[in-house]
Design goal:
There is one protein chain. By secondary structure, the chain is mainly beta. The chain has a 16-stranded mixed β-sheet that branches. A hairpin with a 2-residue loop joins β7 (about 105-110) and β8. It is about 5% helix and about 60% strand. The longest helix has 6 residues, at about 145-150. It has one domain (about 1-235): Clam (outer membrane lipoprotein receptor (LolB), chain A), CATH 2.50.20. It has helices at about 10-15, 145-150; strands at about 1-5, 25-35, 40-50, 55-65, 70-80, 90-95, 105-110, 110-120, 120-130, 135, 160-165, 170-185, 190-200, 205-210, 215-220, 225-230.
Length: about 240
């Protein structure tokens, strides 16, 4: 795979296309997860439109995590519903099929976001005010960077702030997204035009490459030595 960087003046060609919130005929993508440069799992996402035009995103995940003594398999599935056009979250749930079968559900209603957590057979609930710039930011669900990037205002540009709701914690953290520039990726005989972003959260940052529709192509979180790539990039 060759990477060709493009002059800043050409970025407008990609940014002039609004990041679409609607799904035309469905969408699916698969990713390879690498930890310390080694393949450690996969993530597959599928999107469909609901009867009211809302986006329904479902995903399947499998990750192998090692602590030097043993390697553990972590598998779970998610379902995220977003408003048509605005990509504002409506609901979210995550179900683990490994371990003790933990799960959590998030709903947004009447200006409030509520999370119900089922962990080790115990249930807890927390509610917090919903913020207009809030996105679901589940730490181990990497395709959700799609929805953060697609909330970015390309015409405004610069550094833009969001509130990232972390379901497992039941609270939100500040997120900041900055457009860095455009890149051309040569994949076989195909040239993919993409944008590079920096996403800041807490004391960490991620480098995100997204295609012209705001879809995740590549992700790197240096502090965790994690990389996520579209499968066709790693083949």
């Amino acid at each position: 795979m060759k990477m060709l960087f493009v002059a800043a003046s050409e970025i407008v060609l990609v940014l002039s296309m609004a990041y679409a919130g609607d799904v035309q005929g469905g969408y699916s993508q698969s990713y390879t997860i690498l930890i310390k440069g080694e393949s450690a799992g996969t993530e597959t996402v599928t999107e469909q439109s609901g009867k009211g035009g809302e986006i329904i995103s479902t995903s399947e995940h499998e990750i192998y995590v090692s602590d030097r003594l043993e390697t553990k398999r972590m598998a779970f599935s998610t379902r995220l519903v977003l408003s048509k056009g605005t990509l504002v979250p409506i609901s979210y749930n995550c179900r683990y099929s490994t371990g003790s079968g933990d799960s959590y559900d998030v709903t947004v209603k009447n200006g409030q976001v509520t999370r119900i957590l089922n962990k080790n057979g115990r249930t807890s609930e927390v509610a917090t005010p919903f913020k207009p710039n809030m996105v679901i930011f589940d730490i181990n669900v990497y395709h959700q960077y799609d929805y953060l990037i697609r909330r970015y205002d390309a015409k405004k540009g610069g550094r833009q702030e969001f509130a990232g709701f972390i379901p497992i914690n039941g609270s939100d953290i500040p997120l900041a997204v900055t457009l860095l520039g455009e890149e051309k990726l040569e994949i076989g005989k195909t040239t993919l035009r993409a944008n590079n972003f920096r996403v800041e959260f807490g004391n960490r940052s991620a480098m995100v490459t997204a295609d012209k529709n705001g879809r995740l192509v590549r992700l790197a979180i240096p502090a965790q030595d994690i990389q996520v790539e579209r499968k066709d990039l790693s083949q």
